[in-house]
Design a protein that fits this description.
mainly alpha, Growth Hormone, Chain: A, 19 helices, globular
Length: 416
Amino acid sequence: MYSLLLSIIYVAFVSLGLPDSLVGAGWPVMHADLGVPVAFAGIITMIIASGTILSSLASERVTKRFGAGVVTAVSVGLTAAALVGFSVSGSFWLLCLWAIPYGLGAGAVDAALNNYVALHYAARHMNWLHSFWGLGASISPFIMSYALTSGLDWTGAYRIVGVTQAVLTAVLILSIPLWGKVRPTPAAAHADDDAPSDGGRAHVPLATALRIPGVLLVLAAFFAYCALESTAILWASTYLVADRGVDSATAAAFASLFLLGITAGRFLAGFFADRVGDKRLIRGGFVVVGLGVVLIALPVATPVPALVGLVVAGLGCAPIYPAIIHSTPANFGARSSQAVIGIQMAAAYTGSTLAPPAYGVLSAWAGAWVFPLFLGVLVVLGLLMSERLNRLVARRGAGAPQGVPAEALGAAERKG
């Protein structure tokens, strides 16, 4: 039961990553076909981001009412319908219309799936699952390339991914009975012992969740991390060309290595995540990213340290996102974890939406040289907030029994 559902969730994470790069990969052709300016891509992404933020905030109420399995199946179904809608859209306003269910589905499934994995599976699976998401996000540009070169046009790429999501929806519907049969991990089962009470297993309102000690700290840390990641993904290549004199082809290759570093780093982190623990993964991740940023900023004639720094920063980013999510039940209690993770996802989307244009405005005013400085500020913010949260949780749990060791967690998983 445990392994079958876990396999389905792995496939779900790959499939969830598939649509995320389609707009960027296909937009050079899409905007010309639709007769709109290049800048209109921002409208599509803003609509999707708004939907993900709203559905993330509502995910706790919906998931507690219907269950993670139902929410995941329905949400993936919404994204499948939206992608098929994209494939038959002949005008920009129709893309905007279909972007609404796409965003709503993406946010709800993100929050529901991440919380379910945090409660029912070990830290290594959280890292590997997010690595599989990166695999899906890396595949989608190739799907778009195949569609464009084989005569299917950009609509064919959306149709391929939409049908894939529809098949996954059917599998998820069939798997719904399994979701309630996998027991929470021992650590999650005892997570409420030392966590602040939310008054039971009833719905946790947004205002109540925000008042839980430490929630604002984790939101700031998550905002900082996602702002850092999205800014590096969008602007790294431009910085290398404009400020370090790197040719465009080399800059593009190393900018892509940042993403590959995240994907590979999450896969590698899964092998030692249970032994190291979430807190050390987050702390070490921010420190390694900081080292990468220092290499990027070194005022030397050769661009080699900056290129290496991007790879190092990608590897450092790898465990932070999964570890923040996986530590939520331990930090705030299993009863409150869905509400807190929903808010965390909203903070993540807000950071990844607002930071890149903010850097764009700043660099236009001050110059591309501020790129490592901008990233450095976000690294410091994320590290400080996460360390303050660690101290708060440690004070709250002082004198309480220690958490379940990784060995016991692995044994419980095998029995499940």
